[in-house]
Write a structure and sequence with these properties.
This is beta-glucosidase. InterPro entries: Cellulose_Degrad_GH3, Fn3-like, GH, Glyco_hydro_3_AS, Glyco_hydro_3_C, Glyco_hydro_3_C_sf, Glyco_hydro_3_N, Glyco_hydro_3_N_sf. Pfam families: Fn3-like (PF14310), Glyco_hydro_3 (PF00933), Glyco_hydro_3_C (PF01915). By secondary structure, the protein is of the alpha/beta class. Among the domains are: 148 residues, no CATH class; 203 residues, Glycoside hydrolase family 3 C-terminal domain (Rossmann fold, 3-Layer(aba) Sandwich), CATH 3.40.50.1700; 116 residues, Sandwich (Immunoglobulin-like), CATH 2.60.40.10. It is 29% helix and 18% strand. The chain contains 21 helices and 26 strands. The chain has an 8-stranded parallel beta sheet with strand order 9-6-5-4-3-2-1-10. A 6-stranded mixed beta sheet has the order 11-16-15-14-12-13. The chain has a 5-stranded mixed beta sheet with strand order 18-26-25-20-21, with no helix packed on it. Strand 12, helix 17 and strand 13 form a beta-alpha-beta unit. Helix 2 crosses helix 14. The longest helix is centred in the first third of the chain and has 17 residues. The termini are far apart. Bound molecules: alpha-D-glucopyranose. Alpha-D-glucopyranose binds next to loops.
Length: 719
């Protein structure tokens, strides 16, 4: 439709109909809904009227071509002006074909595969009637106590932004009238990942300098990639919750960044201005949120109940409501809903497209790239003539999809046992649970020890229930449950090689595991093809190549621990450092157990001859960093070559390292490649104390290597 039609439509709308467009309700409220929608928040009995539902603008959590078509058809029969509903759902890492959790996808360092996975998720969602997905989640994370780290791609602003861009392109394509695509909604704006204590929904407070330096870049890269929507965070910034924060939502998002798309509150976040203590009642919450530019209120009724009165009393201009309604109508128009309210919903095609074999093949491929080999004392890869004892609560467990897989089918997920059965003769595979996820089981333990005694090698599948991470899944203790550590100790007494495979949604404290395991494969939640992907890796059909994008601390007491930290005035280990009076712990070393960028392979890569095209760089010039990488092992392997920079002296403190580029390469045994990165002045810019964003002349260090610690260093100067 031409935009004039939308303005004409707006002119015809009553104020109730306008306010209705600003409301999102979950599926069960709508006529034509046969099933409960996905209830992902505190849903109380909300006294909505028939008229409110008939005027509502969008639906939360619907899925299924039949269900969504019924809801839309019924709605259009009763909506006076025939304004179609927007169908929005959380398709975070897959619709029914579930890919690895986003933290795992981040560890693949494969942007094209991440884009492709998002494209597949969009295709499955769109044919099932969905128009908008609440993804990508790009919150920077530095605290593994927070359960939602599983939804992010990690602790680096730049890498998160690249993944955000790839996912937005995958979801949206180039034209949203393409009914195989969905609109994306970047979340949670902003800095939700910085909750104090890693406790979900807790206070967030930081300087605007740190907000802009570390937390905002990925949202901006998602919006620069054309992301259509933004979701507000539950949390505060400078003392004001995002949903009522005019500085964040208007000054930065709309005025400075020029975002004129739709902003939706998170579930109930608009009404939560009251318990936050910045709104006395729903009326004040409505006033503050609308003034902040929040267009859609998800699952509460502050707007519905009070905006009309606020206009009548002159406390707000109806113009503000009109602006929000227009943004929503424009999005509906971009999606082609006025011409085709059912858009891509197609029950026939749905059967062939959703959870198709080609889609599951991509999920398998991504899961092999997303898993990270953390330790391998020559026990992997396994061979098919070995007698394997597969033990642990995740040995034959369907809980491998992660928390944001609500449309995925756990029953259809391939368990580790099922995957191994495709690689081993039955006589070479014995399976026992050994214990439950959180409790000991004497009988199971005895069986496990027995099959372990008869085996050549033990695969010990350990981890967290998927509900132990994800939203509202914070933990103060990030070790594996005691029952599992006890099982590991018992098995260790048998002096058999032990391969630990981990199913978890956060970096864990693995200090008790690394000493006892001969190999550790971090599988995260690998998704629908979990078992097949892990079998590929464990038997060497695929050589592991994943690299961590979030540091694993040595202890929860170290948190936050992240690679791009600052030097402090008393760095431990400095040449002139004193023994005691330095920045250190008395009971632990400072660094992480496994650093950002770390991941092993079944082969080895040697880095040499790192050099710059010039050690002097002028403002308007570029220089090149080159390094030779050789596969010095016996098998083909993929390596993620990483490029970091350090600004040795800034106007403000500067991180010890910042990722500025990477390249995923494949090398045959004995093959060597020269990899080159271009260094630009733009990459040296940062936020100064006055929040100006620019580079300074001075000394820098360029680093290149296989992770954020094992690097070759080459100095240069910006003139
Ligand atoms: C949840 C989450 C958000 C999700 C929304 C809708 O509370 O915070 O990420 O998109 O509700 O399900």
């Amino acid at each position: 439709m031409e935009e004039d039609y939308l303005y004409h439509l707006l002119e015809q709308m009553t104020i109730d109909e306008k306010i209705g467009q600003l409301l999102q309700l979950a599926t069960p409220f709508f006529k034509g809904s046969s099933t409960k929608g996905q209830i992902t928040g505190p849903m109380k009995e909300m006294g909505v009227t028939e008229e409110v539902v008939e005027n509502a603008g969008s639906v939360l959590g619907a899925s299924g071509a039949k269900e969504i078509s019924n809801i839309q058809k019924k709605h259009l029969e009763s909506n006076r002006l025939g304004i179609p509903l927007l169908m929005m759902s959380d398709i975070v890492h897959g619709f029914k074909t579930i890919f690895p959790i986003p933290l795992a996808i981040g560890c693949s360092w494969d942007l094209e595969l991440a884009r492709h996975a998002a494209e597949i998720a969009a295709k499955e969602a769109a044919v099932s009637g969905i128009h908008v997905t609440f993804a990508p989640m790009v919150d920077l994370v530095r605290d593994p106590r927070w359960g939602r780290v599983m939804e992010s791609t990690g602790e680096d602003p730049y890498l998160n932004g690249l993944f955000a861009k790839a996912q937005v392109h995958g979801f949206q394509g180039n034209d949203l009238t393409d009914t195989k695509r969905v609109a994306a909604c970047v979340k949670h704006f902003a800095a939700y990942g910085a909750v104090e204590g890693g406790r979900d929904y807790n206070t967030v407070d930081m300087s605007e300098w740190q907000l802009r330096e570390s937390y905002l870049p990925a949202y901006k890269m998602a919006l620069d990639a054309g992301c259509e929507m933004v979701m507000t965070a539950f949390t505060t910034m400078n003392g004001i919750p995002a949903s009522g924060n005019r500085t964040l939502m208007r000054k930065i998002l709309r005025e400075e960044w020029g975002f004129d798309g739709v902003v939706i509150s998170d579930w109930g976040a608009l009404k939560e201005l009251i318990p936050h203590g910045v709104a006395e009642d729903e009326k004040e919450a409505a006033l503050k949120a609308l003034q902040s530019g929040v267009d859609i209120e998800m699952m509460t009724l502050c707007y519905t109940s009070h905006l009309k009165e606020l206009v009548a009393t002159g406390e707000i201009e109806e113009q503000l409501i009109d602006e929000s309604v227009m943004r929503i109508l424009k999005l509906k128009n971009k999606l082609g809903l006025f011409e085709n309210p059912l858009r891509g919903a197609n029950e026939t095609l749905e059967k062939d497209i959703v959870f198709s074999a080609p889609h599951r093949e991509v999920a398998r491929q991504l899961a092999t790239k997303a898993s990270v080999l953390l330790k391998n004392d020559d026990v992997l890869p396994l061979s098919q003539d070995q007698k394997v004892a597969l033990i642990g609560p995740f040995a034959d467990n369907h809980d491998v999809l992660g928390q944001w897989s609500w449309l995925g089918s756990k029953e259809d997920a391939v368990t580790l046992k099922e995957g191994l059965e495709t690689q081993l003769k039955s006589e070479n595979l014995n399976v026992a649970k050994g214990c439950d996820v959180e409790s000991r089981d004497e009988r199971e333990s005895k069986i496990a020890l027995q099959i372990a005694r008869e085996a050549d090698v033990i695969i010990l599948a350990l981890g967290e229930h998927s509900w132990m991470s994800g939203e509202a899944g914070s933990r103060t203790n990030i070790k594996l449950p005691k029952a599992q550590l006890n099982l590991l100790n018992d098995l260790k007494q048998l002096n058999k090689p032990i391969v630990v495979v981990l199913f978890n949604g956060r970096p864990l404290d693995l200090m008790d595991v690394t000493e006892k395991a001969d190999a550790i494969l971090e599988a995260w939640y690998p998704g629908s093809e979990a078992g097949n992907a892990l079998a590929d890796l464990l038997f060497g059909n695929v050589n592991p190549s994943g690299k961590l994008t979030m540091s694993f601390p040595r202890a929860v007491g170290q948190i936050p621990t992240y690679y791009n930290h600052y030097n402090t005035g008393r760095p431990k280990g400095a040449p002139d450092a004193q023994e005691r009076y330095v920045s250190q712990y008395l009971d632990s070393s400072n660094g992480p157990l496994f650093p950002f960028g770390f991941g092993l392979s079944y082969t080895s890569f040697e880095y040499k001859d790192a050099h710059l095209s010039s050690n002097i760089m002028k403002q308007n010039e570029t220089i090149r960093l080159s390094v030779k990488v050789e596969n010095i092992g016996e098998v083909i392997g993929e390596e993620v070559v990483q490029f970091y920079i350090r600004d040795l002296t800034g106007e403000v403190i500067r991180p010890l390292k910042e990722l500025k580029g990477f390249e995923r390469i494949t090398l045959q045994p004995g093959e060597q490649k020269e990899i080159t990165f271009t260094i630009t002045e733009k990459q040296l810019r940062y936020y100064h104390s006055d929040l100006s964003y620019k580079s300074d002349k001075g000394k820098f260090m360029a680093y290149v290597g296989s992770n954020s610690q094992d690097v070759l260093a080459v100095p240069f100067q910006l003139m």
